[in-house]
Fold this sequence. Notes:
By secondary structure, the protein is of the alpha/beta class. It contains 13 helices and ten strands. It has helices at residues 3-8, 24-29, 51-62, 84-93, 107-119, 135-139, 141-146, 162-169, 175-192, 207-220, 233-240, 244-258, 277-300, and strands at residues 15-20, 37-41, 71-75, 98-101, 127-132, 155-160, 195-198, 224-227, 267-270, 273-276.
Amino acid sequence: xxxxxxxxxxxxxxxxxxxxxxxxxxxxxxxxxxxxxxxxxxxxxxxxxxxxxxxxxxxxxxxxxxxxxxxxxxxxxxxxxxxxxxxxxxxxxxxxxxxxxxxxxxxxxxxxxxxxxxxxxxxxxxxxxxxxxxxxxxxxxxxxxxxxxxxxxxxxxxxxxxxxxxxxxxxxxxxxxxxxxxxxxxxxxxxxxxxxxxxxxxxxxxxxxxxxxxxxxxxxxxxxxxxxxxxxxxxxxxxxxxxxxxxxxxxxxxxxxxxxxxxxxxxxxxxxxxxxxxxxxxxxxxxxxxxxxxxxxxxxx
Length: 301
Ligand SMILES: CC(C)(COP(=O)(O)OP(=O)(O)OC[C@H]1O[C@@H](n2cnc3c(N)ncnc32)[C@H](O)[C@@H]1OP(=O)(O)O)[C@@H](O)C(=O)NCCC(=O)NCCSC(=O)C[C@H](O)C(=O)O
Ligand SMILES: [Mg+2]
Protein backbone atom coordinates (compact mmCIF):
# COMPACT_ATOMS: atom_id res chain seq x y z
CA UNK A 1 0.00 0.00 0.00
CA UNK A 2 1.49 3.38 -0.92
CA UNK A 3 1.64 6.45 1.30
CA UNK A 4 -1.33 8.16 -0.37
CA UNK A 5 -3.55 5.14 0.32
CA UNK A 6 -2.25 4.95 3.90
CA UNK A 7 -3.16 8.62 4.43
CA UNK A 8 -6.62 8.08 2.92
CA UNK A 9 -7.34 5.17 5.28
CA UNK A 10 -5.55 6.60 8.31
CA UNK A 11 -7.26 6.10 11.68
CA UNK A 12 -5.92 7.25 15.05
CA UNK A 13 -5.39 4.29 17.36
CA UNK A 14 -2.97 5.71 19.94
CA UNK A 15 -4.98 4.56 22.94
CA UNK A 16 -7.07 1.39 22.70
CA UNK A 17 -8.75 0.69 26.04
CA UNK A 18 -10.06 -2.72 27.10
CA UNK A 19 -13.24 -2.59 29.13
CA UNK A 20 -14.74 -5.76 30.65
CA UNK A 21 -18.35 -6.26 29.55
CA UNK A 22 -18.99 -7.59 33.06
CA UNK A 23 -18.35 -4.14 34.60
CA UNK A 24 -21.29 -1.73 34.00
CA UNK A 25 -19.59 1.13 35.87
CA UNK A 26 -16.49 0.93 33.69
CA UNK A 27 -18.65 0.64 30.54
CA UNK A 28 -20.47 3.87 31.44
CA UNK A 29 -17.12 5.55 32.05
CA UNK A 30 -15.87 4.87 28.50
CA UNK A 31 -18.19 7.60 27.15
CA UNK A 32 -16.23 10.25 29.05
CA UNK A 33 -12.71 9.09 28.13
CA UNK A 34 -10.51 10.45 25.35
CA UNK A 35 -9.26 7.12 24.09
CA UNK A 36 -9.16 6.53 20.35
CA UNK A 37 -10.85 3.12 20.62
CA UNK A 38 -12.51 0.91 23.21
CA UNK A 39 -12.44 -2.88 23.11
CA UNK A 40 -15.42 -4.20 25.05
CA UNK A 41 -14.28 -7.58 26.27
CA UNK A 42 -16.36 -10.74 26.43
CA UNK A 43 -13.27 -12.95 26.68
CA UNK A 44 -10.63 -13.20 29.40
CA UNK A 45 -11.88 -10.44 31.72
CA UNK A 46 -15.32 -12.11 31.98
CA UNK A 47 -15.73 -15.20 34.16
CA UNK A 48 -17.47 -18.22 32.56
CA UNK A 49 -20.54 -17.87 34.79
CA UNK A 50 -20.96 -14.25 33.67
CA UNK A 51 -20.49 -14.71 29.92
CA UNK A 52 -24.15 -14.78 28.86
CA UNK A 53 -25.20 -11.89 31.11
CA UNK A 54 -22.20 -9.80 29.98
CA UNK A 55 -23.12 -10.39 26.33
CA UNK A 56 -26.70 -9.19 26.92
CA UNK A 57 -25.51 -6.20 28.95
CA UNK A 58 -23.06 -5.22 26.22
CA UNK A 59 -25.72 -5.51 23.52
CA UNK A 60 -28.05 -3.17 25.45
CA UNK A 61 -25.20 -0.75 26.18
CA UNK A 62 -23.87 -0.51 22.63
CA UNK A 63 -27.36 0.01 21.22
CA UNK A 64 -28.01 2.83 23.73
CA UNK A 65 -27.01 6.52 23.72
CA UNK A 66 -24.33 5.77 26.34
CA UNK A 67 -22.17 4.08 23.66
CA UNK A 68 -18.85 5.95 23.28
CA UNK A 69 -18.36 7.91 20.06
CA UNK A 70 -14.84 6.59 19.44
CA UNK A 71 -13.99 3.46 17.42
CA UNK A 72 -15.78 0.58 19.14
CA UNK A 73 -14.60 -3.01 19.09
CA UNK A 74 -16.08 -6.16 20.66
CA UNK A 75 -13.68 -8.93 21.68
CA UNK A 76 -15.56 -12.21 21.45
CA UNK A 77 -14.54 -15.59 22.83
CA UNK A 78 -12.70 -17.90 20.44
CA UNK A 79 -15.04 -19.43 17.85
CA UNK A 80 -13.80 -22.84 19.01
CA UNK A 81 -15.08 -22.14 22.55
CA UNK A 82 -18.60 -22.80 23.79
CA UNK A 83 -19.44 -19.07 23.69
CA UNK A 84 -17.76 -18.04 20.41
CA UNK A 85 -20.56 -18.65 17.89
CA UNK A 86 -23.22 -16.92 20.05
CA UNK A 87 -20.81 -14.05 20.72
CA UNK A 88 -20.22 -13.52 17.00
CA UNK A 89 -23.96 -13.42 16.21
CA UNK A 90 -24.58 -11.04 19.12
CA UNK A 91 -21.57 -8.85 18.29
CA UNK A 92 -22.73 -8.39 14.70
CA UNK A 93 -26.02 -7.03 16.08
CA UNK A 94 -24.21 -4.59 18.39
CA UNK A 95 -22.99 -2.62 15.34
CA UNK A 96 -19.36 -2.26 16.45
CA UNK A 97 -16.69 -0.95 14.09
CA UNK A 98 -14.79 -4.22 14.48
CA UNK A 99 -14.88 -7.62 16.12
CA UNK A 100 -11.64 -8.74 17.79
CA UNK A 101 -10.82 -12.44 17.52
CA UNK A 102 -8.76 -13.85 20.40
CA UNK A 103 -6.25 -16.73 20.28
CA UNK A 104 -5.94 -16.58 16.48
CA UNK A 105 -3.58 -19.34 15.33
CA UNK A 106 -3.63 -18.96 11.57
CA UNK A 107 -5.45 -17.53 8.52
CA UNK A 108 -8.26 -20.10 8.80
CA UNK A 109 -9.44 -18.50 12.08
CA UNK A 110 -9.92 -15.18 10.29
CA UNK A 111 -11.49 -16.80 7.23
CA UNK A 112 -14.03 -18.71 9.38
CA UNK A 113 -15.16 -15.51 11.11
CA UNK A 114 -15.21 -13.63 7.80
CA UNK A 115 -17.38 -16.31 6.15
CA UNK A 116 -19.73 -16.44 9.15
CA UNK A 117 -20.16 -12.65 8.98
CA UNK A 118 -20.85 -12.82 5.25
CA UNK A 119 -23.51 -15.47 5.91
CA UNK A 120 -25.07 -13.06 8.42
CA UNK A 121 -25.06 -10.33 5.73
CA UNK A 122 -22.75 -8.21 7.87
CA UNK A 123 -21.71 -5.06 6.01
CA UNK A 124 -18.14 -5.05 4.60
CA UNK A 125 -17.45 -2.04 6.83
CA UNK A 126 -17.61 -4.37 9.86
CA UNK A 127 -13.90 -5.11 10.31
CA UNK A 128 -12.03 -7.92 12.03
CA UNK A 129 -9.07 -7.42 14.37
CA UNK A 130 -6.82 -10.30 15.40
CA UNK A 131 -5.11 -11.02 18.73
CA UNK A 132 -1.52 -12.14 18.13
CA UNK A 133 -0.99 -14.09 21.32
CA UNK A 134 -0.15 -17.70 20.50
CA UNK A 135 3.13 -19.17 19.23
CA UNK A 136 1.24 -20.37 16.11
CA UNK A 137 0.04 -16.81 15.41
CA UNK A 138 3.63 -15.58 15.50
CA UNK A 139 4.75 -18.34 13.13
CA UNK A 140 1.84 -17.47 10.81
CA UNK A 141 2.03 -13.69 11.25
CA UNK A 142 2.72 -12.97 7.56
CA UNK A 143 -0.13 -15.09 6.11
CA UNK A 144 -2.55 -13.84 8.81
CA UNK A 145 -1.78 -10.16 8.13
CA UNK A 146 -1.83 -10.72 4.35
CA UNK A 147 -5.58 -11.37 4.60
CA UNK A 148 -5.89 -7.62 5.27
CA UNK A 149 -3.74 -6.44 2.39
CA UNK A 150 -6.76 -5.59 0.24
CA UNK A 151 -8.22 -2.40 1.79
CA UNK A 152 -11.73 -3.82 1.24
CA UNK A 153 -10.87 -6.91 3.34
CA UNK A 154 -12.30 -7.20 6.83
CA UNK A 155 -8.96 -7.74 8.62
CA UNK A 156 -7.81 -4.30 9.68
CA UNK A 157 -5.58 -4.53 12.74
CA UNK A 158 -3.27 -6.85 14.71
CA UNK A 159 -3.10 -6.61 18.50
CA UNK A 160 -0.19 -7.98 20.51
CA UNK A 161 -1.44 -10.18 23.36
CA UNK A 162 1.68 -10.13 25.47
CA UNK A 163 0.15 -11.74 28.58
CA UNK A 164 -0.94 -14.84 26.69
CA UNK A 165 2.29 -14.94 24.70
CA UNK A 166 4.36 -14.92 27.89
CA UNK A 167 2.19 -17.71 29.30
CA UNK A 168 2.32 -19.85 26.14
CA UNK A 169 6.04 -19.39 25.62
CA UNK A 170 6.83 -19.85 29.33
CA UNK A 171 8.89 -16.71 28.85
CA UNK A 172 9.61 -13.74 31.05
CA UNK A 173 7.41 -10.66 30.62
CA UNK A 174 10.56 -8.56 30.33
CA UNK A 175 10.28 -6.24 27.30
CA UNK A 176 13.78 -7.32 26.23
CA UNK A 177 12.38 -10.81 25.71
CA UNK A 178 9.20 -9.62 24.01
CA UNK A 179 10.82 -7.11 21.64
CA UNK A 180 11.62 -9.52 18.75
CA UNK A 181 8.09 -10.94 18.89
CA UNK A 182 6.57 -7.47 18.92
CA UNK A 183 8.68 -6.48 15.91
CA UNK A 184 7.46 -9.59 14.08
CA UNK A 185 3.88 -8.35 14.54
CA UNK A 186 4.77 -4.88 13.26
CA UNK A 187 6.60 -6.33 10.23
CA UNK A 188 3.61 -8.53 9.32
CA UNK A 189 1.11 -5.68 9.75
CA UNK A 190 3.17 -3.21 7.74
CA UNK A 191 3.77 -5.72 4.94
CA UNK A 192 -0.01 -5.94 4.59
CA UNK A 193 -0.66 -2.22 5.17
CA UNK A 194 -2.79 -2.78 8.29
CA UNK A 195 -2.52 -1.39 11.84
CA UNK A 196 -0.54 -2.89 14.74
CA UNK A 197 -1.21 -2.16 18.42
CA UNK A 198 1.14 -3.05 21.29
CA UNK A 199 0.10 -5.20 24.28
CA UNK A 200 -0.95 -3.97 27.73
CA UNK A 201 1.13 -2.66 30.65
CA UNK A 202 -0.24 -4.60 33.63
CA UNK A 203 1.26 -2.16 36.20
CA UNK A 204 -1.58 0.28 35.67
CA UNK A 205 -0.82 2.48 38.68
CA UNK A 206 2.74 3.21 37.51
CA UNK A 207 2.60 5.83 34.75
CA UNK A 208 6.35 5.54 34.15
CA UNK A 209 5.86 1.96 32.96
CA UNK A 210 3.12 2.77 30.47
CA UNK A 211 4.98 5.87 29.23
CA UNK A 212 8.18 3.88 28.72
CA UNK A 213 6.37 1.09 26.88
CA UNK A 214 4.46 3.58 24.69
CA UNK A 215 7.69 5.33 23.69
CA UNK A 216 9.29 2.01 22.87
CA UNK A 217 6.23 0.78 20.95
CA UNK A 218 6.10 3.97 18.90
CA UNK A 219 9.79 3.61 18.05
CA UNK A 220 9.09 0.03 16.90
CA UNK A 221 6.38 1.27 14.51
CA UNK A 222 3.21 0.40 16.45
CA UNK A 223 0.20 2.69 15.90
CA UNK A 224 -0.75 2.64 19.56
CA UNK A 225 -1.00 0.68 22.76
CA UNK A 226 -3.76 -1.41 24.29
CA UNK A 227 -4.62 -0.16 27.78
CA UNK A 228 -6.44 -1.53 30.80
CA UNK A 229 -7.12 1.61 32.86
CA UNK A 230 -8.34 5.15 32.12
CA UNK A 231 -5.20 6.65 33.71
CA UNK A 232 -3.14 5.12 30.89
CA UNK A 233 -5.03 7.02 28.16
CA UNK A 234 -3.30 10.38 28.56
CA UNK A 235 0.31 9.09 28.30
CA UNK A 236 -0.58 6.91 25.30
CA UNK A 237 -2.29 9.79 23.46
CA UNK A 238 0.62 12.11 24.18
CA UNK A 239 3.41 9.71 23.25
CA UNK A 240 1.89 8.33 20.04
CA UNK A 241 1.13 11.85 18.76
CA UNK A 242 3.76 13.51 16.54
CA UNK A 243 5.83 16.03 18.51
CA UNK A 244 5.93 19.73 17.57
CA UNK A 245 9.50 19.25 16.38
CA UNK A 246 8.55 16.29 14.17
CA UNK A 247 5.71 18.32 12.65
CA UNK A 248 8.04 21.25 11.97
CA UNK A 249 10.62 18.98 10.31
CA UNK A 250 7.92 17.28 8.22
CA UNK A 251 6.66 20.67 7.01
CA UNK A 252 10.22 21.63 6.02
CA UNK A 253 10.52 18.40 4.01
CA UNK A 254 7.20 18.98 2.22
CA UNK A 255 8.25 22.56 1.56
CA UNK A 256 11.66 21.74 0.08
CA UNK A 257 10.23 19.14 -2.31
CA UNK A 258 7.47 21.52 -3.41
CA UNK A 259 9.95 24.15 -4.63
CA UNK A 260 9.96 24.46 -8.46
CA UNK A 261 13.73 23.85 -8.63
CA UNK A 262 13.22 20.43 -6.98
CA UNK A 263 10.28 19.32 -9.13
CA UNK A 264 12.38 16.74 -10.98
CA UNK A 265 14.84 16.02 -8.16
CA UNK A 266 14.78 12.81 -6.14
CA UNK A 267 17.51 13.77 -3.67
CA UNK A 268 17.87 17.10 -1.85
CA UNK A 269 19.86 18.27 1.14
CA UNK A 270 18.29 19.96 4.17
CA UNK A 271 20.25 21.09 7.25
CA UNK A 272 23.11 18.73 6.40
CA UNK A 273 20.80 15.74 5.90
CA UNK A 274 20.13 13.82 2.70
CA UNK A 275 16.43 13.55 1.84
CA UNK A 276 14.85 11.31 -0.77
CA UNK A 277 11.23 11.20 -1.92
CA UNK A 278 10.61 8.38 0.55
CA UNK A 279 11.23 10.96 3.29
CA UNK A 280 8.56 13.13 1.65
CA UNK A 281 6.11 10.21 1.90
CA UNK A 282 7.05 9.70 5.58
CA UNK A 283 6.56 13.43 6.22
CA UNK A 284 3.12 13.35 4.57
CA UNK A 285 2.04 10.40 6.73
CA UNK A 286 3.26 12.18 9.87
CA UNK A 287 1.40 15.37 8.93
CA UNK A 288 -1.77 13.31 8.36
CA UNK A 289 -1.32 11.85 11.86
CA UNK A 290 -0.82 15.34 13.29
CA UNK A 291 -4.01 16.57 11.56
CA UNK A 292 -5.94 13.59 12.93
CA UNK A 293 -4.67 14.34 16.46
CA UNK A 294 -5.65 17.99 16.07
CA UNK A 295 -9.14 17.00 14.94
CA UNK A 296 -9.48 14.55 17.86
CA UNK A 297 -8.41 17.24 20.32
CA UNK A 298 -10.86 19.74 18.82
CA UNK A 299 -13.73 17.29 19.18
CA UNK A 300 -12.78 16.70 22.85
CA UNK A 301 -13.17 20.43 23.65
C1 LIG B 1 -7.41 -3.28 36.52
C2 LIG B 1 -8.78 -2.95 37.04
C3 LIG B 1 -9.44 -4.19 37.63
C4 LIG B 1 -8.67 -1.88 38.13
O1 LIG B 1 -9.96 -1.51 38.51
P1 LIG B 1 -10.26 -0.52 39.71
O2 LIG B 1 -9.46 -0.94 40.93
O3 LIG B 1 -11.75 -0.43 39.85
O4 LIG B 1 -9.67 0.85 39.20
P2 LIG B 1 -9.96 2.27 39.73
O5 LIG B 1 -10.69 2.27 41.00
O6 LIG B 1 -8.68 3.01 39.70
O7 LIG B 1 -10.90 2.90 38.59
C5 LIG B 1 -11.13 4.28 38.52
C6 LIG B 1 -12.33 4.54 37.65
O8 LIG B 1 -12.06 4.09 36.32
C7 LIG B 1 -13.01 3.09 35.94
N1 LIG B 1 -12.30 2.06 35.17
C8 LIG B 1 -11.34 1.25 35.59
N2 LIG B 1 -10.89 0.47 34.58
C9 LIG B 1 -11.61 0.83 33.50
C10 LIG B 1 -11.60 0.40 32.15
N3 LIG B 1 -10.78 -0.59 31.75
N4 LIG B 1 -12.44 1.00 31.29
C11 LIG B 1 -13.28 1.99 31.70
N5 LIG B 1 -13.31 2.46 32.97
C12 LIG B 1 -12.50 1.85 33.84
C13 LIG B 1 -13.58 2.56 37.24
O9 LIG B 1 -14.86 2.01 37.02
C14 LIG B 1 -13.59 3.82 38.08
O10 LIG B 1 -14.70 4.60 37.65
P3 LIG B 1 -15.34 5.76 38.57
O11 LIG B 1 -15.48 5.20 39.94
O12 LIG B 1 -16.65 6.08 37.90
O13 LIG B 1 -14.38 6.92 38.50
C15 LIG B 1 -9.66 -2.37 35.91
O14 LIG B 1 -9.05 -1.21 35.45
C16 LIG B 1 -9.96 -3.30 34.78
O15 LIG B 1 -10.80 -4.17 34.88
N6 LIG B 1 -9.29 -3.11 33.64
C17 LIG B 1 -9.53 -3.87 32.41
C18 LIG B 1 -9.12 -5.32 32.54
C19 LIG B 1 -9.33 -6.05 31.24
O16 LIG B 1 -10.16 -5.67 30.43
N7 LIG B 1 -8.58 -7.12 31.05
C20 LIG B 1 -8.66 -7.91 29.82
C21 LIG B 1 -7.96 -7.24 28.71
S1 LIG B 1 -6.21 -7.30 28.80
C22 LIG B 1 -5.87 -8.73 27.91
O17 LIG B 1 -6.64 -9.61 27.90
C23 LIG B 1 -4.58 -8.72 27.18
C24 LIG B 1 -4.35 -9.77 26.11
O18 LIG B 1 -5.37 -10.62 25.78
C25 LIG B 1 -3.10 -10.52 26.46
O19 LIG B 1 -3.09 -11.75 26.42
O20 LIG B 1 -2.10 -9.86 26.74
MG1 LIG C 1 -4.98 -12.65 25.81
